[in-house]
Amino acid sequence: MKRGLVVLLGLLAFWALxxxxxxxxxxxxxxxxxxxxxxxxxxxxxxxxxxGERYRERVxxxxxxxxxxxxxxxxxxxxxxxxxxxxxxxxxxEVLSAGACYPIPYPEAWEKPVPQxxxxxxxxxxxxxxxxxxxxxxxxxxxxxxxxxPDLVAAENYQVLASAIEAxxxxxxxxxxxxxxxxxxxxxxxARTAALxxxxxxxxxxxxxxxxxxxxxxxxxxxxxxxxxxxVLIDGEVNSAAEGLAGGLKESGRAVFFGExxxxxxxxxxxxxxxxxxxxxxxxxxxxxxxxxxxxxxxVEPDYELDPDEALSAAIQYLKDATR
Length: 324
What we know:
Number of helices: 8
CATH architecture of the largest domain: Alpha-Beta Complex
Radius of gyration: 22 Å
Strand content: 15-25%
Largest sheet: 6 strands, mixed
Oligomer: single chain
Structural class: alpha/beta
CATH class of the largest domain: Alpha Beta
CATH topology of the largest domain: 2-enoyl-CoA Hydratase, Chain A, domain 1
Number of strands: 12
Shape: elongated
C-alpha cells in the first residue's frame, strides 16, 4: 500500500509538472505575440520584458487553466490601449465567428498535443477579463430601419442587422446605422458589416513591418442587400474598427453622417487563435482609407455636426425628405 501511495504521488507530481509546462507555453506565446505583431514596437513605452517576467512568475504558481487565462488577460490590460485583450476558449467561442481568426504564428504550438480545457463551473463571458459584447438592435421607426451596432466583436451583431434588412427592406425608405459609443472590434466584422451596404476595396491596413495591405468588404463583389439611402450616427466614443466602418462608408460616398467627430483611434484589432481555442485580440495595425492619410488622430467628421442625442431624429428626417 505504501508503494502504491508513492506511485500515486509520483504520478500527481508528473501531471502537475506537465500542466505547469503547458501553462507556461501558453503564456510565452501570448507574451511573444504582442512583442512580434503589436503595431507599435515600443508598446506605448511599456517595458514589455519586465511585464512578462512579473506575470510569468504568477503563471508558475497557477493551479488551473482559468487562472492562467485570467493572468494573461490581466497582462494584456497593462497595454491599456482600449483594444488588446485575451479571451479564454469558452468566451472566444461565444463571441467570435467561426473561422474569423488567425493561427498564432508559432509552428511549435501546432505540433504539440492540444490540452482539453473546460470552463470552470459558473464562469460567465467576463471571466477572461473582457467585456460583454453583443446586443445589436433593429426596429422600424417612422418608415426608417434603425440599426444599432454596439461593437464589432460579437458575430451575432451582424446577423441581427442582416436579418432585419432582409425582413424589412421593402417597407422602409432608408436605414440609420447607429455607431454611437461603439468601441470597435475586429477587422473581419467591420468588413462584412460594410458589405451589407456597399462592396469593394474600402481600406488599407498599415501593419508593422508589412506596409499597407488593401482590405475589401466581405464579400467584395456583387450587390449589397441594403441599397436604399443610409445615414450613420457617430460621436467621440466611436473607435477602432467602428471608425474604419464609418470612414469606409464615408469615403465611398455611401452614407451621410450625423453627430460628432469620431475618436481618431483607429488601431485595427486582429484575432489570433491558440490551439485549444483561446484567442488573443491584438492591435496589429492602423486602419486608413484606400488612399490618403489614416484616420488616426483626426477621426471621421460628420456631414451634419450636432449633439449626438439629436442625431437620430435629424437622420430620420433627412432620409424622409431625401426620398420624397
